[in-house]
Each structure stands twice: as structure tokens, then as C-alpha cells.
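1st attempt posting a full record on here, be nice pls
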Amino acid sequence: MNVIEIRDLTYTYPGASRPTLDHLNLNVEKGDFLAIIGNNGCGKSTLCKTMNGLIPHFIAGEFQGSVLVDQQDTRTMDVGRIAGKVGYVYQDFENQIVRPTVLDDASYACMNYAMPDYLERGREALRQCGLEGREQEYIWQLSGGQTHLLALAGAVSLEPDVLILDEPIAQLDPKHADLIYGILKNLNETWGKTIIVIEHHTEYIADYCHHVALLKDGHTEWVLPSDEALRRVEEVQECNIFPPQVTIAAHQMKKEGMLAEDTVLPTTIEAGKKVFDRLLYRGEICTEREAPGEKQQETESVVSFRKVSVSYRAVKGEAKQIFRNLNLEIKKGEKIALIGSNGAGKSTLMKLMTGLIKPSEGEILLKGKGIRDTKPEALSKMISLVYQNPEEMFIKDSIERDIAFAMEARNTENWQERTKALLEQFRLTELKDRDGRLLSGGQMRRASLAIGIALNPEILLLDEPTANLDIATRKEIMRTLNEMKDITETVLIATHDMQLVCEWAERIIVLCQGEVIADGSRNEIFGNRRVLELTGIRPPEIFDMGKVLNPGAFCYTIQEFRQQFGCGCL
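the predicted structure (as C-alpha cells):
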């Protein structure tokens, strides 16, 4: 039985030259756990907004075809009735939190629809979403993962048949990501909810989802069981989606004759054991970053934290300590990854460096001069922060004006030419007249990075630069990061993307509860079990695959896995 039926749907945003959804057809079976995949801008979020009635009830545009929920056309349904059938958790889920306490927020939608049992519904939703016991806490006391669960609880409280989540784990550490998907699995299996996720993390699709729908050029290319879908490696990659690393590795090794032609590609580590168990282990391949020898000559320090403490004052009056007596040195020319669980202090550390947050105690030196004594104009030329939420970078009504803004305000020489060059460099020329807040996630990322480097800062700070990105956009961001030394001397990235960390970073700093608990190379960090357990950090999937096959293996990339295990069979 289909709970959602979409028939010949075509939708065009106001002012757009072509439709975002083009004669799209899709059936969603009751009780399914469906992943919707596709490249950035292919229409995934737009499609889901037609399922919950946001389009066309609240977002105008040219709408043709039909979207049926329980065999009722959403265009003729009352929006309150749709909300009771289809719950939605947005990619920017923080904007769904509207009340000061946890229970208030979880029950708000039910109260808004005048349901007499709204508090009971809120409590039950919190229980189902793993937030029982936190009813009276203030929302700002929650971690990012807990806040996402609260947004989910708000949708669950209306007892919908269908729950839609747009990139549910994009900004979460692995521990909270596992928690989110564990709760979604329980809602699906125990409570009979139909779950639909827009997801780029295919390893979670392999572990949790039943089916996958691929969107391409505004239509549904196919709907397949998850394992079958993820085994279509080349087809999926052409649409800028990463299949699981174990799947890609097996696919490449199969093509090169390292695995038999009839090998069924694995989609999980468990399946990978059977596929790779006969491969010989050659030993770790020494890379430049882990190569023995003398350490590079010490360079000058560009940022120094000296006994820095930071506390936030909560609404009840007690202080929440973020950092205490933090000492840290960042050297000129370093490529640093800052990692840790949600709430560990990564974003706070970056805001301290830019002067957006002042330390309670201690001092921060920028090239030997205290930040407190540096004028904002001078500080902005030296250091730039690209925010985790890229829409926060947009203040004008077009991408071109946003990129040009800081340069024009400071009367930078040839700022018009530089604006044009940045638009071309980040593939934004055709979008230059668009409002940045109305772009796709990948387009926003590219635009925010262009804004961040406009003034050629000596130090560039990036907060989650690859979140929500497809392969093409992610590769472009990676290419730009690798070329950054031509633009800026020192780059520090805060991220949960361990593939990015392992492919790009030369130094890794690990934060846990406001302290630096580890600082070193890939092997020093990921080879330390205590650090991994304390922080919930998870190395790339291919790393775990290598460890399963041989405890001495250190495979951070697919290429390194093939080098260490691709020498033949026993």
C-alpha cells in the first residue's frame, strides 16, 4: 500500500528559467525506510516540500501533476491535516525550535492545533526520541544532536504516518549520528512510521534504509533496494554521490582483477569481511605525513592561546565552562583539522580567534599582538571565518554584491576584477545575481568560501566546509583547499568529515569538553583508542575495514587500502 503517490509532478520556482522537478513520478510504500539521493540542486528538498504541502500552500510557483497523501491531493488538503500525516524535520532544524523549554517545544504544534492532550503527546514524543527526563531543560542547554532530536519530537508529537528528514546528520558527530538513526529505526520498526531521509552519507543508507530513490535532472531515475542501489557504483558516482568506501574499494579492485569477476560488491564492513578476507596484507605504506625523519624546522607562531578561559552564563545564573586555561600554538603555513564531538568547543575556538567572543581570562595573540588591542578592520584583513551555516555569510541581495562587499568597503585595488575572478573560480558566474539564501546547499558553500577569501586573509578558518555536499562540490572544495597556499598561508578547519581530515590535514587537534586531549598526525590520533572512545570520533569506513582484516593496518583512503591489501590472494 502506498502512503504517498506522486504523479507526473512538474514544479518551477518563481522566476526560474526551467523546472526543478520535471515530470517526476514516485510511490512511497507504507512502512518503508526510503533514502532520496542525488547531486546538490537536483530537487531533493523541493520534492520533500511537496510531500508536506509546503509547496504549493506556502511557496508559490508553477505546479503541475499531483501529490497524494493517503490518496488525497495535497493541493486540496488543509495544511493542518497534512501536518498530521507528514512530519518534516528541516536541514536547518534549529529554526524549528520556537519555545524556551524542551517540553514546551515538543508539545507546541499539538497545542497550536488545540489538541487537549498536547502535553501528554509532547511527553510521549520525547520518550520516543530519547529525550525523556529533559522536559524542563532550556533548549540552549541541549547539544546539537539533542536539538535535532527535539525538532524530530515536535514532528512526532502530531503522530504522523510519515516522517521526512532533510540531511539529518550533516552537522553531527558520529556518536549523535548513530543515535539519530537508531531512533529513526525504532520509529520505523516499533511504531510503524514511514521514514524518508535526504542523505549523502551512504554508509548510513546501507545500514538503515530499505530502498533508495535516485533523483536526476528533476525526475526519479529509479527506486531500488538499498544494497542493489549502492552497488551501482559508477551510475551513483556520475550523480555525484559517494557509495560506501568498502563498495568503491571492491569495485576498483574487481575491475583491476584483484577480486573475482563474480564478486558481489559489499556495502557494509560485515559484508566486506567475506569479500576481502583472502587478500594479502603488505604492511603500511609510509606516506609523507607519517614518514620518519627530522621534523620540519619550527616556523613562527601566528596564533597563541595563553591560559584562555571562556564561560557562558546560563539563564538560571550558573556559568558553563567551555575552556579553562587553554594553551595552544598555531604555526604559519599549517593545515590543521580541529575535531571533536558536538559541543566540544570547536566553533567557540574559532570565534575566539576572530574576536567575536572575548575570553574570560587569559589572552589570545595574533602574530604576537593581543586581539583585544587589534582594530576590527585590521583583524578582518588578517583572519577570516567561514561559518558553519553559510546563509549567515549573506547580507546583500546577490552573490556578486556579497563577494564584493568587504573589498568595496575597504576600497581594495581592482576589487571589481577580483570579484569577477572569484565568481569564475567558484563556478558562481551564472548565479551572481541570485540571493545567496535561496541557493542550494552546495552553491551556498561555494559562495560563502568565495566571500571568506575575498580579502586574501593570512589565516582562514572554515567551520564544517563539506557538510551536505555532493561529490562534485566536495571535490571542488577539496581542490580549493589544496590550492589555498596561493591565497592564504594558514588554514584551520573544524569538521566531522573524517575523510576530509585524513586526505587534507597535516596536523589534527582533538577537543573534548573544552580541553585539547590530543594533537598530532593521523596515526597518533586514530591509533589512540582512548581518544576515539572519549570523543566518539570515528575514522573513515575504509580505516575500520583495514583494521578488521589486519590490526596493524592504517588505511585512511581507498588508495591506501588498495596499496596495503591489493597484492593478490592467499
